[in-house]
UniProtKB/TrEMBL annotation:
Membrane topology: Multi-pass membrane protein
Name of a matching Pfam family: Sulfatase
InterPro entries: Alkaline_phosphatase_core_sf, LtaS-like, OpgB/LTA_synthase_biosynth, Sulfatase_N
Ranges for domain Sulfatase N-terminal: 237-529
Keywords, comma-separated and alphabetical: Cell membrane, Manganese, Membrane, Metal-binding, Transmembrane, Transmembrane helix
Lineage top rank: taxon: Bacteria
Subcellular location: Cell membrane
GO molecular function: metal ion binding
Protein name per Swiss-Prot or TrEMBL: Sulfatase
Cellular component annotations (GO), alphabetically ordered: plasma membrane
Residues annotated to bind Mn(2+): E245, T287, D463, H464
Family as reported in the entry's similarity comment: Belongs to the LTA synthase family.
Length: 620
């Protein structure tokens, strides 16, 4: 075969674009999957684009090249979205993410801060071909070439059927896989995206009448006869819950070349109940999901954020529970209440009042609203007003200044980083959390000054991770290894702190496993408020020694954290991977029974919340 013949063959749109997509699939696989296999990516991704190409060859009589370019652009966009979504969330993007387009746009700086320049190579051919075909004279002539003849139409139909069959061959045997990332790798990214659109299997609902607290307790392994030594210890006290943005547990007690990163929280830790094996339980909604889980003791929904899936329901909640005991309730957040649909969330949870951007204003603004200094100053003033009204209150305070990508203004720097931390993601994270700690210290001083500190039960926790493993480059991973003394792992990533401070509580470190779903029942127990009439999936952390926490979204379906460790299933339980707890040295030993119970707990939570009564329409 002559070189001219080879060149003509390679320049045929079908062949040319097939080669292009082999290269693009390899780039996407190299970012997303740990073990990129050349032939695996080709055999799973190429049949999908070939099916589209054979349709073009069969039906396009004109502008065939334009159709190839359109397919090229659309499929490239899917690959690029998969890359960037994985770098930000650690999961495979699906069509459900379209529900959060406005939110993703709002955090675009965070998303694109994770982009390595070589990711843009995926668009190289589009730019070059666009210039060649639409601007260059030779390219315009090429478009007019005789590529529109449709010889062998029946052959194209047969080849389309074969390509579609190969797609189904990749999809059908892997439908039952529990691990979404493994499922996407076995099916191929493009096949997986199509599968999620067309499958849309609705989860089987359990009748609400069958969902009892006894059933939940048995699945969780709760000892119902156990009583917390601190039950009712804070009865009649105010409750102040502080949610720290992106705050991971390793920050507490951390020193960088002798400098304390969180001196104020360290002092609180030494004077509080400190849970060092406490874990996030959020999903796509991140901060807003944490607000939902903490205030409802339910799990996040199967898809999307709680603020999109559950806000049409009247949700049994901590605000409602405490209102029945004479409390007034309010939540404080410097961002606009419509971000992540929080206005509807707060209505569903039954808050008496919320204070957002309209209350805090534009003073000292960065990222999404006023700084934490403004948040805490104005909140403390409002809490003093509420306290002076003569009835106890529950207030949740949402910090925001240490938000991804953690590039706070230079005037907010409160510590000087060593040279090896400068210009790194980990360094920016530590510096932003150092500022968040500084602002938190001011809040503590203000609460003490206005007499609220000693008259309140204070609970402080991190809402979600700040340093996802899949977002770290080599230098960042080395810094994390320096901090931990070993390789940064999944349990470390999900590990957030919980601090509980009250005058009647003896300071100590507790290694009991807990998650955000446990905050509501633990707070209720300390305040002496019964939860007998509230279905809940958390537990009083001060009365139990065992816990089972189903995980979702940031870990594959079927993952769980328990006193036995962290377990991530593969295609099923049998090929699972297990990890130590963040602060536990025992060999992980998660069992199939725990795996089955975790899946059942998720199903019960999904079923119960889905069948809750719709909330009353807002009064106009």
């Amino acid at each position: 075969m002559s070189s001219v013949t080879i060149k003509r063959w390679l320049l045929k749109p079908f062949v040319f674009f097939s080669i292009i997509f082999v290269l693009k699939s390899l780039l996407a696989w190299g970012v997303i999957f740990e073990d990129t296999q050349f032939w695996k990516s080709v055999l799973t991704e190429i049949p999908f684009v070939w099916a589209l190409f054979f349709l073009i060859e069969r039906f396009a009589s004109k502008r065939k090249l334009g159709y190839y370019m359109t397919v090229n652009l659309l499929v490239t966009a899917i690959f690029f979205a998969a890359i960037m979504y994985f770098k930000y969330y650690g999961v495979i993007v699906t069509y459900h993410a379209a529900e959060q387009v406005n939110q993703v746009t709002a955090v675009r700086n965070s998303v694109f801060s994770l982009m390595d320049p070589y990711y843009l190579l995926i668009f190289t051919d589009i730019i070059v071909l666009g210039f060649y075909f639409f601007i260059n004279k030779n390219g315009r002539n090429y478009k007019k070439d005789k590529i529109n003849r449709h010889n062998g139409r029946m052959l194209h139909v047969v080849l389309f059927a074969v390509s579609l069959g190969l797609c189904l061959f990749n999809i059908l045997p892997n439908k039952a896989s529990m691990n979404e990332i493994k499922k996407a790798q076995e099916m191929g990214i493009l096949n997986y995206e199509a599968y999620t659109i067309f499958a849309q299997d609705k989860p089987e609902l359990v009748e609400a009448s069958e969902i009892t607290q006894d059933t939940i307790n048995q699945l969780k392994g709760i000892d119902a006869s156990a009583v917390s030594p601190y039950a009712g210890a804070a009865k009649g006290k105010n409750l102040i819950i502080i949610q720290l943005e992106s705050f991971q547990n390793f920050l507490l007690g951390l020193k960088v070349d002798g400098q304390e990163v969180t001196p104020n929280l360290n002092r609180l830790m030494e004077d509080s109940l400190y849970f060092n094996n406490f874990y996030q339980m959020v999903g796509q909604g991140n901060t807003s999901d944490a607000e939902f889980v903490v205030n409802s003791s339910f799990y996040i929904p199967p898809q999307g954020a709680a603020t999109m899936s559950y806000v049409d329901k009247e949700v049994p909640s901590l605000p409602r529970l405490l209102q029945a005991s004479g409390y007034q309730t309010a939540t404080f957040h410097t961002n606009d209440v419509e971000f992540w649909n929080r206005g509807e969330l707060y209505s569903s949870l039954g808050w008496d009042h919320y204070y957002d951007h309209k209350f805090f204003g534009d003073e000292d603004t960065f990222f999404f609203g006023a700084s934490d200094e403004v948040l805490y100053r104005k909140t403390s003033e409002k809490l003093k007003e509420m306290n002076d009204e003569g009835q106890p209150f529950y207030a949740q305070v949402i910090s925001m200044s240490a938000h991804h990508p953690f590039t706070i203004p230079a005037e907010k720097y409160k510590m000087k980083l060593p040279e090896r931390y400068e210009g790194t993601f980990v360094g920016d994270y530590i510096r932003s959390q150092n500022y968040a700690d500084y602002a938190f210290g001011q809040f503590v001083d203000e609460l003490k000054a206005n007499g609220l500190w000693d008259n309140s039960l204070i609970m402080v926790y991190g809402d979600h991770m700040g340093l996802p493993i899949y977002s770290l480059d080599h230098d960042d991973k080395e810094l994390m290894k320096e901090i931990y003394g070993y390789d940064y792992a999944y349990a470390n990533m999900l590990n957030i702190p919980l601090l509980i401070h009250g005058q009647q509580l003896a300071p100590q470190t507790l290694e009991q496993v807990g998650g955000e779903v446990d905050i509501m029942p633990t707070a209720a127990s300390l305040l002496g408020v019964s939860m007998d009439n509230n279905i809940h999936f958390g537990q009083d952390l001060l009365s139990q020694s065992y816990n089972l926490l189903p995980q979702r979204y940031y870990l594959p379906t079927g993952s769980f954290i328990a006193s036995s460790g962290l377990l991530i299933p593969g295609n099923s339980f049998e090929d699972n991977t297990q990890y130590l707890l963040a602060n536990g040295g025992h060999t992980p030993a998660g069992t199939e029974d725990e795996y089955t119970r975790a899946l059942r707990l998720r199903q019960l939570s999904d079923s119960y919340v889905t069948q809750l009564p719709d909330k009353a329409p807002a009064e106009e």
